[in-house]
Amino acid sequence: MEAVEPQDGVVRLTVPAALEYVRIVRLTGSGFASRLGFDIEEIENLRVALDELASMAIEVASGGDLEITFFTTDSELRITGKAPIADGVDVGVETLTAQILKAVIDDYELGASDGHVRFSCVTRRPLN
Amino acid sequence: MALSAQERAESRAKFVEFRRTGDRKLRNELIEAHKSLASHLARRYANRGEPFDDLLQVAYLGMLKAVERFDPDRNLEFSTYATVTVEGELKRHFRDKTWSVRVPRRPQELHLRLGNVINDLSQRLARAPRIPEVAAELGVAEEEVLEAMEVGGAYRSSSLDTRAGESNEPTTIERRLGAEDRGFDIAEHRVLLDAVLGDLSERERTIVELRFFQDKTQTEIAEEVGISQMHVSRLLARTLIQMRERLETLDA
Predict the structure, then answer these.
(1) Distance from CA of A33 to the nearest CA of B (A)
(2) ipTM for the assembly
(3) pTM for the predicted model, two decimal places
(4) pLDDT tops 90 at residue B106
């Protein structure tokens, strides 16, 4: 995953890597975006994306915690997440999910490295 | 509505007299004199789904009660007392007749009002509203709006996506498709997707196509299909869950 320098105002959220906590992830994400002045539709899009990515990460995670970081740069809102994953578990995005993600955010990644499933979710827009 | 000092003194004298005699004619004059305040208050509650004439009736009834109960010996302006009484009557009317004015405590209730407010604001602002705007319109905190949006739906149903058993074997289609699918070939998977899309109602299919294949926004779809943005949002959430369910079956 490419290195992006976060600016001030980083929000970190740690929840158990279980699907019932996805709601809290969505809620935090929408709150963060609202603070940035996102409109209701942009927030709705972000919720969909977070729902997809967090759920997928949790599905392959080997328990433990899902750690999420919300931050902005000059030009984008970026959300990254990671959770522990067992060796050899496939991580991928199904067609429908890929189609959905493509429609709601500008860029995303989902993959495994260093014993963690990791995702990033990027919405580009002028922020400062 | 502002009364001159003389009018106020006259009004006060009438109240004193009415309290002493209970004269109905005097009472009616007092109500008549404050009708415009009643209709002013009724107008505040207009456009919330109740006929204005009904609201006016309720407001006049409130004014009647105010006139009958007002104690001129207390150091209080009648207009202040009447406003509280009439508003109380109007609020009670809504509470009894509908829930639309009661301040919704639960996100579920708020969610029901969210759709209309978003539509109204979108038209007024000619763009999608922001959360603070929606919150101000609804008279609630921004957090409550965000909570209410959550009621609109998870896009996944956790029961369906929960891992079957403790096996490490990937069970859902997405895991089977594997990581290389980042650069997936739509044509190949389109067959599967078409099967799933085929199960949807025509409207659902149209909405999914517009949203995810033509990249239209929910607002654009709402206009095109002739339903509210909120409804599009709900339909999409429901449809996506259905499609997942179907994909799982096809894949099994």
Answers:
(1) 10
(2) 0.79
(3) 0.56
(4) no
